[in-house]
Design goal:
By secondary structure, this protein is α/β, with parallel strands linked by helices. It is built from 7 helices and 16 strands. Helix 3 packs parallel to helix 6. The relative contact order is 0.11.
């Protein structure tokens, strides 16, 4: 192959790559609306159509819009970690109203308290909005406890879903006009420190009869959601200075749904099964166990891996 031919193919490959990059950059960004209102008898089925029409009418000309009704816990978890999403609107019952008087709750259509799922959001998602009664107080606590780079919106009072969505859309539109300036300001304000952490890899094995999605939390930080269809899952757990480790496993249901649900038997071991996390604290409601804390002490050093992490606040 002559030098001229090689040069031609090199330029052609770069041209194709450039065209592909420009096509990707010009593609409309994906905005997803997750509707988790479940009491249709109270609001009427037309509320679904009204919510969908509102976001299409306001944003459909500039963004790729996707609307998902009856959003359950697993769908929300997937969409909050979907790298293709640019913005996520979540419409649901939350915090305190006449029918949901318990605090610290954001309820999905399948009656799970999904508040912890907002601890973990893919960095490609730049804006997150929660439309639900007094959701702002819940969101402020998350932002206080964990560094979140996204722009957030949440309703700060008792909110009707359609009017709350309109306010959220206005906030989203305004935020996009000053996003670049805000991100630059946040980057300057960030204070980052390096920290060495110790971890051990464990394998969670579920019995075939286990039918509940399980949430994994360590030291108040949501780690992941384990689907009922996933019977084995690896997870890295941080180890304390005394080489102890703990993990909280819970169902995460709304309190009124605790009855007839429980965590069935699961095993949490190292790959060679020489170290076993044992249940030490059990919590139940009405019937069955709904939350379990597993612990192990004195982890041998050969199982511990260290890594350097950067924490920004």
């Amino acid at each position: 192959m002559t030098r001229a031919v090689k040069t031609f193919y090199f330029l052609l490959a770069n041209f194709i790559a450039l065209i592909s990059l420009n096509s990707w950059a010009l593609a409309p960004k994906q905005v997803i609306l997750l509707n988790s209102i479940y009491d249709i008898d109270k609001y009427g089925r037309e509320i679904y159509d009204e919510i969908g029409k509102e976001i299409y009418n306001q944003l459909g000309s500039k963004y790729s819009i996707k609307v998902i009704h009856h959003t359950g816990q697993e769908e929300l978890y997937y969409q909050l970690n979907n790298p293709n999403n640019f913005a996520v609107f979540f419409v649901a019952h939350s915090n305190s109203s006449k029918s949901h008087i318990a605090n610290n709750l954001i309820i999905s259509s399948d009656r799970f308290n999904v508040l912890p799922l907002f601890h973990q959001i893919h960095p490609n998602i730049k804006w997150v909005g929660i439309v639900g009664c007094k959701a702002k107080a819940l969101l402020n606590k998350i932002k206080h406890d964990f560094y979140m780079p996204q722009i957030f919106y949440a309703s700060d009072s008792l909110t009707f879903h359609l009017s709350g969505l309109k306010k959220a859309i206005k906030h989203f539109v305004r935020s996009q006009k000053k996003t670049d300036r805000r991100i630059s300001r946040l980057q300057r304000k960030k204070k980052c420190t390096s920290k060495t952490i110790k971890e051990v890899e464990f394998v969670i094995t579920r019995l075939p009869s286990d039918t509940q999605p399980l949430r994994l939390t360590q030291r108040g930080r949501f780690l992941s959601l384990s689907s009922p269809n996933l019977k084995s899952k690896s997870v890295f757990l941080q180890v304390s200075n005394k080489n102890n480790v703990s993990l909280k496993v819970d169902i995460g249901l709304h309190p009124i749904q605790f009855k007839n649900h429980e965590i069935e038997n699961i095993q949490i071991t190292t790959a060679d099964k020489s170290i076993v996390l044992k249940p030490v604290v059990l919590f139940g409601r009405t019937k069955g166990v709904t939350s379990v804390v597993y612990k192990a002490e004195g982890i041998p050093s050969e199982y511990i891996k260290t890594k350097l992490t950067k924490q920004c606040h």
